[in-house]
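Reopening this ticket.

The earlier resolution said the output was attached, but the attachment link was broken on my side. Pasting everything inline this time so it's all in one place.
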Amino acid sequence: MRLFHRLAALLLAMALLTGIAAAEGYTTAEIGAAKGLRSVHIRAVGDLMMHEKQLEIAAEDDGSYDFHEQYALIANSLADADYTIANLETTVGKYKDKAYSGYPRFNAPESLLDTIKDAGVDFLTLANNHMLDRFGEGMVTTVNWVDQYGFDHGGANRTKKEKNTPVVVNVKGVKIGFLCYTQQTNDMEEKCSPKVVQYGINYIKQADFRKDVAALKKAGAEVIIALPHWGKEYQREPGSTAKSTAKKLVAAGVDVVLGSHPHVVQPIEYIKTTDSGGNERIGLVAYSLGNFISNMTERYTDSGIILDFTLQEQEDGGFLAIDVGVVPLYVWNRDDMLQTLSSTRYDLQPPEGMSAEARRRMKASLLELRELLDQRIPFLLE
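Inline output:
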């Protein structure tokens, strides 16, 4: 009977991605709630960048920085979940006498975290190729500020104890474990203390996925989300390494994989595989969520997605990611401002002041995302 329930759950998850309704007029999460099963509504976004233009826009006359306007058109969408996840692709906090900076070595004022917090983000992955842009000291400063602003986080560690402490968060009574890894750190680790490689940054090449999953489960995790920073920049399809790594993560016990680094959106799919005991497993994989906010203007880099899904408890135990949808994003970039917005919400009625050229590009980006992603994944208004 347990095998039947698990098979039914797997088929249901696959059906949800193909747009088959669980029941007329109800989401699968609502059906689960009626049975007394727990669920958590999750939203996740990709790269929160910090380019020079973003700093210039945020600069105030008194020397402070305010980033709220850059997030103003999308903050409500970010917050529309029980828990929201993002990739912080910049160091934070002053480094010695250096000015805050954009590419190639990102460093943002801590007030950026105030904006991100107000916008509804709960969890920040710090495992990415720019986390050592201000060396090991800057990484530690970043983690200190992220802690001070009350974010849950993973991927960058100040001590060995911190690296060896499983990251488990209780959301609505569901314990979610997080694994955060990066493929590389732009060779900056070679300019840092050996401690950075030993325990400071979680690298994919050093990871033992099964061991890491086991540690999370021992710490009480009921469902596991992995956030790998991987792949090749600007490629709209995942490479063979990302695909094989995703399969290994799911086989090791990961339920959801949320990728970043390419700066463009890549496909979303369910992966079916078997664990070391020969048991069938299924995981939701978003290979790259694209840029959330940046000053990148090349085609495809000016758009991203909010991935929306529900972690649904199953009758025979475990959780599945269901009711998958996306909010397509466009970064509206003009001379004195850039703002992230929902391209579905503003498709028919663009925001005041948007030029005809920007509107054409927003519409084109929406079409590009529809063509890239499975046509049966719902595009949400906001």
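Reporter confirms the inline version is readable. The radius of gyration is 20 Å. Residues 356-372 form the longest helix (17 residues).
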